[in-house]
């Protein structure tokens, strides 16, 4: 995997530029400075700087192999997931690395007692005068100001470290990197809805599934049997929400109308993060949260649902704007992530992620929550943005964490987006596309190779369940006020992972898209190319996401979006794990390696495309395609595949 070698090659390339001054070699040098950052003045010698030395982690180059070792069905170690400690210890810097860096600093006159090391051993920290830090690192520090946000930072144009410790140092801060800034607001997947008035839908009829998708339609589409009355205490379904809140009255209305076997008052178990709270009064209910629970409960009940409601209202509502996403959730389910260093970032980004304690009015005054919840076996996430919104290294650090959660047995599923090959209109450009509005915009964090992405399908009018589904294409006004097509495409950050390589190759060979492309983001847009032929393809799978019955804010509405597809697929995985637990087996972790080996366990979707950027988008095809992935779930077949694995 090239993913993990980026920084190493950066360091090596930089070291070859070293000037022969003492035994120090250039470790990092900045080649270009973003125009928004203005260098103001030299730091004076007496100013205080906090020096943070990110230590090289062990075994990152083996991470993909480790993941496949426990998640690929052909591995003899399938399902032998790691503990959180095993994960932390495997990737922690070696003792040799820690000793080498400490010895260097102590030898250079930094008293041992001044050196602190984070719990996960990721970095060594000490306070110093600028003069001392400059002399340790053979560098000159400057003050910089971000002309747009006013953010201030200290950075150097280059710095050096002794040759014998270079291999042990990932990066130093302050160093050459300026704080992360994003290119625009990161959008969330907002589901689309239209009011219907009073429900007159027959909850047990399958005759109207082409008009309204009810729990009975979902069960029939994917052949989901009734749930067993006896469920495991260790298999609650995880659902992530941010800035959108369920109302109990909406859940009750839904249960009363569609699933009377679910008692009134049934509600998710709270796993609230950094000051988040739920539920809200009916009039404030969010369409996303209500939708997620109304789709998931009918499939998993009597199993429980765990609600990861994230961030205090200031951040969750956007009152304080942050462009990063998802890190505070990851901190809460893996304490080591709070201080995890990778790609030049240690812990969350203070300029992109929420900062706690939140000193603004009514902010959450507690500390950032780290490792307070054990992650559930399955986590369903109907939120995301675009790759273009965030720096690549912010995304890569987070993507590594998804890998680590997979190693520990958690399956994470993301909605693939609702704008086809584009991003949301107005995000990054008028039509949500890159370049001059012609280049496809891959979604974040969907393009991470270690998550499972769910696209959206629908039943067209006058088609029955037996006729099969198509990819969602809904033009403006039909039926929603905004256009909607299933998110899909190819990453500009991550290369095609091995588990997907033959599926993607077959798509290009047999169903070559009619568009010019570029190969690797270094040639972004060259020769008129509008997508990256070498990028990780998504989505991986699909499920229904159109005309979904929902009660929201007391009204009966129809809802659409990959936001709906994701809790459906996640709930089915949860049910399969339930059956595994019943026979003494465990959770499933990262799903993709098995799914791509068993495309026959999914209903192949071959009708439709995912329009965007002035094109019809990619076309569905037999086999995997970047519109509907491998297809929609066939519960009995998926159960058979996963139940037969150890
Ligand atoms: C796979 O995991 C087993 C232990 O579970 C280990 O012995 C083996 O070396 C691993 N193989 C690889 C290729 O990582
Ligand atoms: C590394 O150091 C820690 C603490 O000093 C010690 O517990 C551990 O055994 C050491 N590991 C190795 C491989 O030497
Ligand atoms: C609802 O549909 C079911 C199954 O088709 C049918 O048996 C029942 O009579 C219908 N109920 C009403 C009120 O039409
Ligand atoms: C439920 O499952 C557990 C564990 O498999 C078993 O011990 C228990 O007897 C079951 N209860 C019922 C009511 O079937
Ligand atoms: C849940 O998991 C814990 C530890 O992982 C185990 O001790 C317990 O027996 C499990 N409970 C059930 C009902 O499977
Ligand atoms: C719900 O409404 C009641 C009565 O208007 C009010 O007291 C309460 O604060 C509201 N709760 C929330 C969470 O908005
Ligand atoms: C909160 O803290 C930040 C930086 O720590 C500071 O700039 C800001 O003025 C503070 N806001 C309030 C309301 O105290
Ligand atoms: C965008 O269009 C302008 C004017 O046609 C052209 O000069 C420029 O090179 C284009 N940029 C890209 C990235 O295609
Ligand atoms: C569906 O079938 C009905 C009855 O045959 C017909 O009136 C209607 O136009 C059809 N709708 C579509 C979208 O084909
Ligand atoms: C891809 O290349 C374009 C053009 O150089 C650049 O704007 C963008 O940031 C790059 N994206 C990534 C993920 O590196
Ligand atoms: C295929 O998709 C088109 C729209 O792209 C739709 O009109 C047609 O009904 C679909 N066919 C089937 C069999 O669903």
TrEMBL record:
Its cofactor is Ca(2+). Its main location: secreted. Residues 212-645 form the Peptidase S53 domain. Residues 1-18 form the signal peptide. The active site is at residues 288, 292, 563. Ca(2+) binds at residues 604-605, 623, 625. Its EC number is 3.4.14.10. One of its GO terms (molecular function) is serine-type endopeptidase activity. Binds 1 Ca(2+) ion per subunit. The keyword Hydrolase applies. One of its GO terms (biological process) is proteolysis. This is tripeptidyl-peptidase II. It comes from Aspergillus ibericus CBS 121593.
